[in-house]
């Protein structure tokens, strides 16, 4: 079985709206629902982690369509706390996918690629090649230019065998470590993370200019 954790608990402060961006309408449908719809036929169970004051509304908007396959849970203080809650709220599935609710353009093709590779290797992320020159800096001074041929921009969904992700979260909690995504937690326990080719359209909506005229 496949389980999905949809990370929708962020405040979206950089977006500059009183309503978190994942709940704003995109062509008439909330952004998080656009993201969720892409997974509907590909996963068996889903957990949506949201701010506490959005829990009832999201439950009303999702329960009928998902017919008992979905749970809405309150997120934690940080993304990692929210995803951890989602992980423990899922039934014991084989593969866990973690997806940013603010990536509404994810495709079924990319989701399928991640599932297949996670089954094969245990942990997988989609990544895009870096097309611009990247500098490491300290303050206003350039330290060095990084070799972009060995870099990718990580996307979601990220996929993991459930036992691997549980082990990674347990270690992070023990060490008091917080990462910016789930794959870094797996890296920290010494297990490999595979990469499949991401999609340029699979952007994470962060600023209003990411979707001009839409939100």
Largest sheet: 8 strands, mixed
What value does the average pLDDT take?
A: 92
What share of residues is helical?
A: 25-40%
Question: What percentage of the residues does DSSP assign to strands (E)?
Answer: 25-35%
Kindly, what is the distance between the CA atoms of the first and last residues, rounded to a whole number of angstroms?
A: 35 Å
* CATH fold field value: Spore Coat Polysaccharide Biosynthesis Protein SpsA, Chain A
Integer count of domains: 1
CATH superfamily: Spore Coat Polysaccharide Biosynthesis Protein SpsA, Chain A
Order of helices and strands: EEEHEHEHEHEEEEEHHE
Helix/strand layout:
Blueprint lengths: L1 E6 L17 E2 L2 E2 H7 L7 E6 L4 H12 L3 E5 L4 H11 L5 E6 L7 H14 L1 E7 L5 E4 L2 E5 L6 E3 L3 E4 H14 L7 H6 L5 E4 L18
Parallel strand pairs: 1-4, 1-6, 4-5, 7-12
Antiparallel strand pairs: 2-3, 6-11, 7-10, 7-11, 8-9
What does this structure look like?
The chain is globular. Strands 1, 4, 5, 6, 7, 10, 11 and 12 form an eight-stranded mixed beta sheet that branches. A two-stranded antiparallel sheet has the order 2-3. The model has no long low-confidence stretch (mean pLDDT 92). The longest helix is centred in the middle third of the chain and has 14 residues. It has one domain: Spore Coat Polysaccharide Biosynthesis Protein SpsA, Chain A. It is an alpha/beta fold.
